[in-house]
Amino acid sequence: MPVYEYEAQDRSGQLQRGTLFAASVGDAIKRLREQGLVVLRMQECPLKVPSLLFRTSARPMAVFFRHLYNSYRAGIPLSEALTIFANTERSPLSSVASYAAQRVAKGVPLSQALRETPFPFPVFVLPLLEVGERGGQLERIFGYLADHFDREAQFEQEMKRGTIFARAYMGFGVFGMLLVLSIASSLGVEMPLVASIRGALKGILVLVGAWLVWRLLSMTRWTAPYTDFVLLHFPVLSIPWRRLMAARFARTLALLYSAGVSPHTSLELAAQATGSPFLLSAARRLSNQLQRGAKFTEVISQMPFLPPLVLQMLATGEKSGNLDESLYKAAEFLENEAQTAMKSYPIVAGFALYGFMLLLLVYLVFQGLGAIVSFYRSLP
Questions:
Q1: May I ask the CATH architecture of the domain 238-342?
Q2: Is the pLDDT of residue 63 over 90?
Q3: In the structure, what pLDDT confidence band is assigned to residue 259 with cuts at 50, 70 and 90?
Q4: Which of 2, 12, 19 is nearest to 38 (CA)?
Q5: How far is residue 247's CA from residue 245's CA, in Å, rounded to a whole number?
Q6: Residue 308 φ/ψ, nearest 5 degrees
Q7: What residues does each domain of the chain span?
Q8: CA nearest 83: which of 94, 69, 91?
Q9: pTM, whole model, 2 decimals?
């Protein structure tokens, strides 16, 4: 969904600036008029797509949003809280906070100020801040983002701990093979084992190249939906990612719905918050049904990867008039499921690296034995 930057005057003649997610320019102007604003300027702002080649660590963002949450709760003005963070924290976000503090002090919404910076925030962060600003729930959004990035940082730490020895062994193995090649080259020796090491290194380079190509395809607008589809439908390994996407979708949808955002807009923004082109495409297709008056839970039931238990919870909530509460309970359930599933990833990744190095070692040992046997057979 496009984002529009606007300038407008309220009934008292004061100038208002901000950003707005809307289906079109006409829709954006209509919504601002409903708020009693006279639009002076409206332009579409391209959404930044963060780099997927090297992901930004979650820890700095967890500290940033935790600071904003605690400061906002304490009644500290937002611009002052940003200034304090910029002056006291040694973080990649310090310069971002300094710039945002100046912009916020001039009346620019925080979501717009962060959008103007080059920092690659995940795609769901700015829409959530926009919702918080529109619905008066910034404290709640700050808390949610802080908790989310705390969990992401914990997962990153567990992944590092689970694979550190395997990655170290792989690094030493590659270094050892390069050292053997260097010695053989300096001595002018050409042996079958040396040729085997060259072949093994070429295989590693092919794997690294395939990973880089996958990342580049994931970053490209036209190919990202296909790589996302493969990632979410890969046997066994896709299950934790499906649960993570479903949890993020449900949590964002709950926040949007409780903030009073229209159902079809909530659906699209919640899908955008997952960062999944596949889910966003499905949400855009289904949002038309909500605009035509279809029941909320009937449409949500057509979204991929939502378990039957969650759909039953939402249906019960809609019938009882407590859909907001049911959405939050569904989000908590999915987050617990996702957290449990993601805990197995470091173990699987570690064993995969160990297995790769073991196969490589076995291959080199057999090649070396073959070279020795050939040498003795060649003796008179």
A1: Up-down Bundle (1.20)
A2: yes
A3: low
A4: 12
A5: 5
A6: -60, -35
A7: 1-46, 238-342
A8: 94
A9: 0.60
